[in-house]
Amino acid sequence: MDLPQQLKAVTLTHVRYRRGDHLGHFLAWISLVPVFISLGGFVSHFLFRRELQGIFFGVGLVISQFINEFIKTTVEQARPATCTLLEACDSHGWPSSHSQFMFFFATYFSLMACKGIGFWFGLKSRWILNLLHWSLAVVTMYSRVYLGYHTVVQVFAGAALGVVVGGSWFWVVNSVLFRYFEVIEESAVGRWLCVKDTSHISDVLKFEYDNARAARKKNMVDAKSD
Predict the structure, then answer these.
(1) Measuring CA to CA, how many Å separate 207 from each of 58, 111, 119, 214?
(2) Which comes out higher in pLDDT, residue 97 or 222?
(3) What CA dihedral angle connects 72, 133, 167 and 99, to 10 degrees?
(4) pLDDT tens across 111-133, in order?
(5) Which of 17, 128, 152, 224 could form a disulfide linkage to 24, CB 3.0–4.6 angstroms apart?
(6) What span, in angstroms and rounded, lies between the C-alpha atoms of 226 and 222?
(7) Which ranges in the chain belong to alpha helices (H)?
């Protein structure tokens, strides 16, 4: 039995770089940013925030990844020759899913910032955050080429698709699905999961801060009256 051919790596976190290459090491970690966003960001968001805007943001990323896999298996374009060393030749390369994920994320995030949805910061801070996300998207795209997982054409295809799908999904959520947010909130499942929409509140951080303080003061008054 040829053992290497019988083994397959979990590609979600299986990133290789040349030993001693410090830039490659850094970019290998950058390649994992989509994993951190998915597992750390959206899972935490659902557990602790349960905002409908954030939930549908995450749903859009999942849809984007399904679109990516469908295109990859349809086009079946091979990865660059370096895929042999990276043990990545058993998957297709066009378009890059990492690039598509990050550019979807940056596009959707920027559109939310333009509409002031879900942000607790001033206008200047929003643009700083947008710069951070677009920078991460570009560096992630570069990392996939530098590390040898994709060609330049493949990462640009992923980036373009991410922008298109991200913008389209934002329009669907905020022009079509938004009308049903109240219905979702008031549904039995919505109330059980405590999902909510705060996009109508201009400063969510200040609103929650004031209400938390007011609730604490009320509890103190009630305790004293007892």
Answers:
(1) 24, 22, 12, 11
(2) 97
(3) -10
(4) 888 777 765 555 556 777 778 88
(5) 17
(6) 6
(7) 3-6, 22-30, 33-35, 43-48, 52-75, 83-86, 97-115, 123-146, 152-175, 181-186, 188-193, 204-225
DSSP state of 125: H
111 half-sphere exposure, CB direction, 13 A CA radius: 22
Query: Is the predicted pLDDT of residue 9 greater than 70, yes or no?
Result: no
Spatial separation of the C-alpha atoms in residues 109 and 82, rounded to whole Å: 33
91 sits in the region (left: phi over 0; alpha: psi -120 to 50; else beta) called: beta
Structure tokens at 163: 């922008």
Three-state DSSP state, 14: coil
Residue 80 predicted with pLDDT over 90: no
